[in-house]
């Protein structure tokens, strides 16, 4: 996920006001440009959240006084390992403490961030020591609580109360003793919402192409404390223009550091092979750019001297202008969650014959007796473990397509639970159970057709919209095949783009997924048979084989959801109150 963008509407922000790039349908782009940024550390959207802690009913471990509690905060890895994040101060003589020390954590939508809170009673003899120096094994353990960061931020008041437990919960209630409660409050940093909208242009750019003008775009990078230069923003590519005027881009001040933090603005000539030519650069802070705008002045681009040479940087005739500089506060993804918005998960699974006989080990649908999930199961689990926290009732529509149910014709959208009346299942495990049951109750057939499941998902989203429910829907399509109803699916997606809906497509197996890249619409917005262009890009696609072992197949796709969500909200002028 990126931190700023440019699109027809002048950019859109996502979690914490950071924004993801939305490809412009009129400009050449995009995989090569994205590869450049990712290779240089271009990372996902996030928002800084401040955690406040309080407790009630703690155990009294002191004989002549009350306990002196302190909280230690940990992050918990997938392997169960704990990494200490921070400690509060010690509150003397209190069984109902309210700690003053806050802990700031970066919230990432696309990952499950497990937190563990341990409360201990600090012995009086250590009260004069820095809490960071305290040896925890020398303190009395009062209780432990755990949750995910998603569970906290999805509460309407940003507050979650947890039972503090002493002993092992896994050993049963007799061994798990309640020892008071811990309340965790999350508040998004104001800086996460403060952005600067910039309109930039250049003049007299030098040509990097032999037979045409350059195709310029800008990359804005920040400088980290370690000296690294990390991209945070990019413009669209403008074809054949030596005096380009780019569409507005939005920079999040928190991501930059401050208005005085140094930035490097590089101008590149776009090449489709990913080897973009540097035209020149400037080094300015946001405050410097504001001055350029207010005074109507410009900054000359320069190129750095070659390594090993003592010569100074070469100043170019090319100039950078700031036509607009506008500081504002925007509603963030977390603002909508606090307002009561939910994300509802939906799944559609490919049951075409090209997957192979589910009873044979070489089938993509093979259920391993060892419990090792196949690629379909992995994709469901990867998406479900993140999205489940944003859906209150955890009832998920689940469909299959490309199979022949018992005594019936081939269906391109059948309820995975076997019912003819309703499509929902209970929880992620309900999806897994219905999937495995369907494998042995339908006959795999074909062809691969997406249109009906996209239409079904859009119908549910539209019904919710008509009832004024605060819901946004995410359809996960998992497929192994080459789509055969490309134009019909494009028609359905153009219609669905008006709905509160995003579509994630995961390709499994070794098929040719070129059509999926068309649906992804990174290069050009989808167009229907009647010539209607989609109002926004709602599709993200990734081939399972492109994901390295150990990585979440859907993490990159899920990372784009907050920006798609906010693009819809701003398109429909929906604002939290």
Question: What are the main properties of this structure?
Answer:
single chain; cell membrane; 577 residues; C2_domain_sf; 4-stranded antiparallel sheet; 7-stranded mixed sheet; flat; alpha+beta; repeat; disordered N terminus; 12 helices; metal-binding
Helix content: 10-25%
Biggest sheet character: 7 strands, mixed
Mean pLDDT: 85
- Unreliable spans are 1-44
- Span between termini: 27 Å
Structural class by SSE content: alpha+beta
From the alpha-carbon coordinates, what is the Rg to the nearest angstrom? 27 Å
Q: Count of DSSP helices?
A: 12
SS strand fraction: 25-35%
**Which geometry do the CA atoms define?**
flat
Q: In total, how many beta strands?
A: 25
Membrane topology: Lipid-anchor
GO molecular function, one term: metal ion binding
Subcellular location: Cell membrane
Domain C2: 28-162, 178-302
Written description of the protein model:
The chain is an alpha+beta fold and 577 residues long. Helix content is 19%, strand content 32%. It contains 12 helices and 25 strands. It has helices at residues 31-39, 149-153, 253-256, 286-295, 333-338, 375-387, 427-439, 451-466, 486-496, 514-520, 555-558, 561-571, and strands at residues 47-56, 69-76, 82-87, 103-107, 114-121, 140-148, 159-167, 176-188, 194-203, 216-223, 229-234, 249-252, 262-269, 277-285, 298-303, 314-329, 342-350, 395-401, 403-405, 414-415, 424-426, 442-444, 471-479, 501-507, 539-543. The strands form 6 sheets. Strands 17, 18, 20, 21, 23, 24 and 25 form a 7-stranded mixed sheet that branches. It has a 4-stranded antiparallel sheet with strand order 4-1-8-7. Strands 3-2-5-6 form a 4-stranded antiparallel sheet. Helix 8 (451-466) packs parallel to helix 9 (486-496). The longest helix is centred in the C-terminal third of the chain and has 16 residues, at 451-466. It is flat, with a radius of gyration of 27 Å. The two termini are 27 Å apart. Mean pLDDT is 85; it is low at 1-44. It is found in: Cell membrane. Its main location: membrane. Pfam families: C2 (PF00168), Copine (PF07002). Belongs to the copine family. One of its GO terms (biological process) is cellular response to calcium ion.
């Amino acid at each position: 996920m990126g931190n700023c963008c440019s699109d027809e509407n002048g950019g859109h922000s996502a979690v914490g006001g950071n924004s993801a790039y939305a490809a412009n349908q009129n400009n050449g782009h995009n995989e090569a440009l994205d590869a450049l940024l990712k290779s240089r550390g271009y990372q996902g959207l996030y928002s800084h959240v401040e955690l406040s802690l309080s407790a009630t009913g703690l155990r009294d471990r002191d004989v002549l006084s009350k306990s002196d509690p302190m909280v230690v905060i940990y992050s918990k890895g997938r392997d169960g390992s704990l990494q200490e994040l921070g400690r509060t101060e010690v509150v003397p003589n209190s069984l109902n403490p309210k700690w003053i020390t806050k802990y700031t954590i970066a919230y990432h939508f696309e990952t499950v961030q497990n937190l563990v809170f341990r409360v201990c009673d600090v012995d009086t003899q250590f009260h004069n020591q820095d809490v960071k120096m305290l040896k925890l094994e020398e303190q009395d353990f009062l209780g432990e609580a755990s949750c995910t960061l998603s569970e906290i931020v999805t509460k309407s008041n940003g507050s979650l109360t947890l039972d503090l437990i002493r002993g092992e919960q896994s050993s049963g209630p007799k061994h798990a003793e309640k020892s008071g409660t811990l309340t965790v409050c999350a508040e998004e940093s104001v800086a996460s919402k403060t952005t600067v909208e910039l309109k930039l242009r250049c003049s007299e750019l030098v040509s990097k192409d032999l037979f045409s003008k350059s195709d310029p775009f800008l990359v804005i990078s920040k400088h980290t404390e370690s000296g690294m230069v990390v991209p945070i923003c990019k413009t669209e590519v403008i074809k054949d223009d030596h005096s380009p005027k780019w569409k507005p881009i939005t920079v999040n001040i928190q991501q930059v550091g401050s208005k005085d933090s140094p930035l490097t603005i590089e101008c590149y000539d776009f090449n489709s092979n990913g080897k973009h030519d540097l035209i020149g650069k400037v080094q300015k802070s946001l405050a410097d750019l504001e001055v350029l705008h207010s005074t109507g002045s410009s900054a000359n681009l320069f190129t750095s001297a070659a390594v090993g040479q003592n010569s100074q940087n070469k100043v170019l005739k090319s100039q950078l202008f700031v036509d607009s500089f506008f500081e504002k506060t925007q509603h963030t993804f977390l603002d909508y969650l606090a307002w009561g918005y939910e994300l509802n998960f939906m799944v559609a699974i490919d049951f075409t014959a090209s997957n192979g006989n589910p009873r044979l080990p070489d089938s993509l649908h093979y259920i391993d007796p060892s419990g090792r999930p196949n690629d379909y199961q992995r994709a469901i689990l990867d998406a479900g473990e993140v999205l489940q926290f944003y859906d209150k009732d955890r009832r998920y529509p689940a469909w299959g397509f490309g199979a022949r149910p018992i005594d019936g014709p081939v269906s391109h959208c059948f309820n995975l639970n076997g019912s003819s009346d309703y499509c929902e299942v209970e929880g992620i495990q309900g999806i897994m159970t219905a999937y495995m049951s369907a494998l042995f109750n339908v006959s795999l057939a074909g062809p691969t057709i997406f249109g009906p499941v996209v239409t079904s998902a859009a119908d549910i989203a539209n019904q919710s919209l008509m009832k004024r429910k605060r819901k946004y829907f995410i359809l996960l399509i998992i497929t192994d095949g080459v789509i055969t109803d490309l134009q019909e699916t494009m028609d359905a997606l153009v219609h669905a783009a008006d709905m509160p809906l995003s579509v994630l497509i995961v390709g499994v197996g070794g098929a040719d997924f070129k059509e999926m890249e068309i649906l992804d619409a990174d290069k050009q917005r989808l167009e229907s048979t009647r010539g209607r262009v989609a109002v926004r890009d709602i599709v993200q696609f990734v081939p399972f084989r492109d994901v390295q072992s150990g990585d979440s197949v859907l993490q990159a796709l899920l990372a784009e959801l907050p920006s798609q969500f906010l693009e819809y909200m701003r398109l429909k002028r929906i604002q939290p109150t």
